[in-house]
Amino acid sequence: MKLKSLFVSAAIAASMPMMAWNGSVLISTPNTSMLLHADEGSDLRFAYYGERIDESEIHQIHDAWDGLNQAAYPAFGEKVHELTALQVVHADGNMSLELTVQGVETHDAGDAVETVITLADDVYPFTVDLHYRAYKDVDVIESWATYKHNEKKDVVLQRFDSFQMPIRQGDVWISHLYGSWAAETSVATEPLQPGIKVISNIDGSRNGHLSHPDVMISLDGKPQENQGRVYGAVLCWSGNFKLRFQTEYRNVHKFFIGMNDEASEYRLAKGEVFETPKVALTYTAKGLSGASRNYHRWARKHGMVYGSDKPHDVLLNSWEGVYFDVFEPKMDEMMRDFAAIGGEMFVMDDGWFGTKYKRNNDKGALGDWIVDTTKLPNGIQGLVNTADKYGLKFGIWVEPEATNVESVLYEKHPDWALNVKGRNQHYGRGGGQMLLDLCNPKVQDFIYNMVDTLLTNYPGIAYIKWDANVELKNYGSSYLPAYKQSHIYIDYHRGLVNVLERIRAKHPDVVIQACGGGGGRVSYGVMPYFDEFWVSDNTDALQRIFIQWGTSYFYPANAMAQHVSASPNHQTGRVVPLKFRFDVAMSGRLGMEMQPGSMTDAEREYAKKTIGEYKEILRPIVQQGNLYRLVSPYDDKGYASLMYTNDDASRAIVFAYKMKHFNNMLVPRLRLDGLDASKTYEFRELSVPVGENPSHLNGKRIKGAILMNTGFEIPLDREYSSRVYELVAID
Q: By CB neighbour count within 10 A (0-12 exposed, 13-18 middle, 19+ buried), where does 504 fall?
């Protein structure tokens, strides 16, 4: 239904448009609203995004701040001296666009209400549809754009942002994630200063290493965890991205977010539709943690394969236990030992395949997905049977997007690897690894058929660890024609999504983990097809506090795979108590990355008890609960703390970690959040080592108001002390 000069509400109870203030489009979630001005024949203007308002308050927004002078989706050609969200070259060489509103549509989309604002150029037959999907049960609005044209020849897209928003200048800060292998998702916090701030990634295949396509924008000064107004923006794209903040002499910061335009000109054919990735937006007045909780609810309800009501299993991954030595007797032994302490799933990592070229290291055999029977004489089915014998589920490692020079696949199909004609290849991990050309439908079919055959032939496989260990090193496709070589960064990920959609359609119940050489695939671009992320190859518990803290800004606990590893740690050499390692790992999806048989009897007894507590007590609240980050490791206070509550705040789990240790070191009182101030909570300490007594807090009963306002003394008296408490409301 086309609408002219009307008010469109995407509110929780409204799915049909209603007449109201002339030219306004109001898009609402349960607690937030976005207001746009869309007079037909005029350009689209951005007016407001914040606490929920209704139609009677629209004029008050305009009276309080004349935001209508800011374009909602500026295109190059309207104001060529300003940054733009869209830039094209028409078939005749003209680079201008002047987009005006042609109409507004709204429809009920089941769990959301979608509003589409159509913009078009008056001179060229070029149309832009701006989509806004407002969810009815969470405070998230998804926004994206689609382009199409009816010109005689291709139109070249040179910039194609998904969303743009003006933000009133003030004491505005941003929080974003950065890092590299084994040090992913570090948190950077900085004020917006005059000039242009760019956050970008050009890895090509993954976007969870280096910078991340997510940002939180704090409007009230230096960010606080549980208070202050915050915008969140997440680009749901697995490839290269670019976020830009422009701060000039005017009264706004201009924020742009979308795919990276670097080496990515896209030739849009007549009648073809180009869709940008979705941006998930949120607003809260409850600080960074409040924005995180919005994203976590949205992910569990709408963005993940596994819903919030499905617990993720406690698993043992073989990698740090045996590395490439995945011989059948060792697998049997690890399964037996893990089952004895309460494990639920065993995952065999890299090293299980290869015939002509053996997978005994990272130098060869990728793409040759045939079992090495010298290692596994009874094949995969034998391992599935062994896991079943011990009461475990079985999982397996694959890296479907890559090949090695030393592989039968590459010998048969060298053109299936991304390559640059006339130049030497550049290689990744092991000195011989390359990405397959996912722009090519034949390559997509090969990857799909490989995974499908594996799951069809062995229906006992319940879990896949899908790895991606190399960036896009060779920017050339034997499949794409010469004039479309600049499509590689985009078409690679379109091809990946096509494969994943096909796999999920046929195998919806298999749990699939996204691993990207560690945390390189932590991204909402792939979350709809994966159940969890491997957050980092660094399993050191101390550094994992920082890595997991940053990841939790945008991603829920049940998507964060967190493993207990050996001591000394294999990456840092750090010696850390088993309790500390468990307490850190239990704040997400608990797993192990070691040899259970190498533990002492006391350690195995502790592990069995603690895994049991995790499954029965912690898992339901941690994996599906509401996160409150309390004391940040980045504040350098020597300790860190976070907590989860269930929806009615009748139960909570509190984690606290001592990260530095000095004599007479002051540990401040710990103040909680998210509790019911009127209720009294009883403490129960969990994860207590064998032979030790719980702390003085065990069994104490304290009012929620006191726990949140005054706080309590938490006993962290030794190096690498850690505490885990369950709080239960008793009245």
A: middle
- In angstroms, rounded to a whole number, what is the distance separating the alpha carbons of residues 385 and 365? 26
Mean per-residue pLDDT pooled into runs of 10, the chain (731 residues): 36 38 85 94 94 93 75 91 94 96 94 97 97 98 98 98 95 97 97 96 95 97 97 98 90 95 98 98 98 97 77 97 98 98 98 97 97 98 98 98 98 97 93 97 98 98 98 97 98 98 96 96 96 97 98 97 98 97 98 97 98 98 97 95 98 97 89 98 97 95 98 94 98 85
What are the structural domains, with CATH classification, of the chain? 24-303 (2.70.98.60), 315-400+447-474+508-626 (3.20.20.70), 628-729 (2.60.40.1180)
Q: Which of 537, 540, 583, 676 is catalytic?
A: 537
The active-site residue out of 139, 214, 467, 531 is 467
Element (DSSP H or E) covering residue 681: strand 680-686
Instruction: Cite the beta strand spans of 575-669 per DSSP E.
Output: 589-593, 626-631, 639-645, 651-658
Residue ranges of alpha helices (H) inside 202-281 are none
- CA distances 341 to 185, 538, 586, 592, 706, Å, are 31, 24, 15, 11, 38
* Residue 248: predicted pLDDT: 83
Indicate the residue type of 707.
Answer: L
For residue 694, which of 702, 683, 710, 703 has the smallest C-alpha distance? 683
Q: Region of 387 please: left (phi>0), alpha (psi -120 to 50) or beta.
A: alpha
What's the rounded Cα separation, in Å, for the pair 179 and 187? 9
3-state secondary structure 9-66: ECCCCCCCCECCCCCEEEEECCCEEEEEECCCCCCCEEEEEEECCCHHHHHHHHHHCC
The 10 Å CB-count burial string (b at 16+, else e) for 25-38 is bbbbbebbbbbbbb
Q: What is the radius of gyration, based on Cα positions, of the chain?
A: 27
Q: What is the pLDDT of residue 10?
A: 39
537 is catalytic: yes
| 452 flagged as catalytic | no
- Give the 3-state DSSP-derived string for 494-520, with helices as H, strands as E and coil as C: HHHHHHHHHHHHHCCCCEEEECECCEC
Q: How many Cβ atoms sit within 10 Å of the Cβ of residue 361?
A: 12
Place of tokens 């929780």: 12
C-alpha closest to that of 661 among 597, 717, 585:
717
> How far is residue 358's CA from residue 371's CA, in Å, rounded to a whole number?
10
SS3 75: strand
SS3 of 643, please?
strand
Gap between the Cα atoms of 395 and 387, Å rounded: 10
